[in-house]
Amino acid sequence: MKKISLVIGGKRYTITLEEPFADEVEKELTELFDPANDNDTKRLLQAFLTKQIEFLELEQKLDELLKKLPE
């Protein structure tokens, strides 16, 4: 288990994640946020939407690959 902290809107949030996901989540959070400073809610929303778009693109690619598989 690993604790990851992030400050958003003047409030520190700490989450606990299990390995191996914790390191990857921490890496992505540091790319999207500045962990040393306060981050505003606008940045949180932008990060969420960025990840949501990535998820939707991956979902489309997966659907395309699944269609190519023989039934």
Structural class: alpha+beta
Sketch the major β-sheet: 2 strands, antiparallel
pLDDT averaged residue by residue: 91
Percentage of β-strand residues: 15-25%
Q: In one word, what is the shape?
A: elongated
Alpha carbon gap, first and last residue: 41 Å
Which ranges are low-confidence, i.e. pLDDT below 50, for 5 or more consecutive residues? Answer: none
Encode the helix/strand succession as letters.
EEHH
Number of domains: 1
Rg (C-alpha, Å): 16 Å
Q: What's the helical proportion of residues? A: 55-70%
Number of DSSP strand runs: 2
Number of helices: 2
**Order of strands in the sheet with most strands:** 1-2
Explain the overall architecture.
- With 71 residues, this protein is of the alpha+beta class.
- Helix content is 56%, strand content 20%.
- The chain has a two-stranded antiparallel ribbon with strand order 1-2.
- The longest helix has 28 residues, at 41-68.
- The N and C termini lie far apart (41 Å).
